[in-house]
Amino acid sequence: MGKCKVSLQDIAMTFQTPDGETQAIQSFSLDVYEGEFVSIVGPSGCGKSTILNILSGLLQPTGGIVEVQGKVGYMFQKDHLFEWRTILRNCLIGPEIQKQDLKAARAYVEKLLRKYGLGDFLHHYPHQLSGGMRQRAALIRTLAVSPDVLLLDEPFSALDYQTRLTVVDEVWNILRQERMTALIVTHDIAEAISLSDRICVLSRRPAVVKNIYSIERTIPGQTPLQNRKDERFRIYFDQIWKELDIHAEVY
Amino acid sequence: MPKSTEISQQRRQYLRQQKVRRVSIFSTQIAVLLIFFGLWEVAANLDWIDAFITSQPSRMWKTVLNMHSTGELYLHVWTTVWETIVGFTTGTIGGLAIAIMLWWSPFLSRVADPYLVVLNALPKVALGPILIVWLGNGQPAIIVMALLISIIVTIISMLQGFLSVDQDKIKLIQAFGANKMTILTKVVLPASLPNMISALKVNVGLSWVGVIMGEFLVSQAGLGHLIVYGGQVFQLDIVMTSVIILALCAALMYVAVAYAESKLLRWRL
Hints:
A: Rossmann fold; B: MetI-like fold; flat
């Protein structure tokens, strides 16, 4: 296992609103190592996205220590491509904001777009692309600033089921090729098992880590879609499903 | 599927139907206009109506030619158009600037909220006499009237547009390290462009209202002046002619804004 890229220790988060205070995260600790794909699963509203917002610096935790080696890239549920920019210029928004050398950035982004099948759409507007292609473009926009760690917040849940299976494979493939470390938040247990090396299961709010699973494959190095056929897939699914305790919840 | 070169029978029939429809709508529109003016002319000639109080197209045409030869036509049209353009531009730019300020500072926006509501509800024409006392009997009072009528609506609608920009888009570029200025220029303003243009369209109309109201109150020239003057001396030829020229000018300005819209919002289609 490589060196530690992300280290979260005893993170706590409490939100203040006029109606009162909400403790979203009680205590959360997790280390992510270089090249690893780690998923965070948990019941909806348990503060999964809050963890990513803390990691990306959008939120300050009310307690605990955050350590990130290198730059963080953030990918959202929806692609949020800007309708008024072409695909190429959408992908250049990161370098533009960070005042990087735009010529070099453009060459890099164009290379990525071509490599991942968007070469013919550089000067198209987002509405001219399919959902899967848009999500790929959004990923390349995130990669354009050469992040060391990628945070993905339910990156596939806005897509329809069939597109989703292919896009998961595509994204997984891109992330592997670009040697990314990734932290993925999802509520889809099957998706988490199919693409992660480890899965961190959270409790209901205020969130604590219930368990962390290391996912072993019968045949290593397969794509997420192929992993779904793995004989252990069902076993992990049942374990995590029980752990989440969704069916027994009474509201 | 047939290639673009060989069009199917049904497609050709469909296209023909569409064309027939377009042509018939347009020709009916022209016919309505011609019949309206034709009836007006005939009714006046046959004394069905009193041309002294209704005027008639031929007399209006004579009025236009008359005013053209004295050069008066261009003076009045230009005065009103100029006042409208200045009122429209300052109202739009001023409204935009204030809306940006209020977006920048939520505190300021909360403070300003009740004042904007009251100012929006107030009929701006009521301020006419005050403007005349303060700014004198001339063009500045008219322009400020046009500005006041459009600026409050601009502030309110633009601010609403700014605030309705998808928060996740803002979060996205914040994750790239964007500061408030970058958020404004890279997301909020471009995302609000459709909103801004619809505000412009409303403003064009409102500026005309402001200018004509202003000219009714005080003026030495302009189409509003001509209308009031013509009414006072019972020269309905002048009144009707001015109203029609006014309608043409307003329509032209609206078309110009709509053209700008189609150029600026090409990414939408």
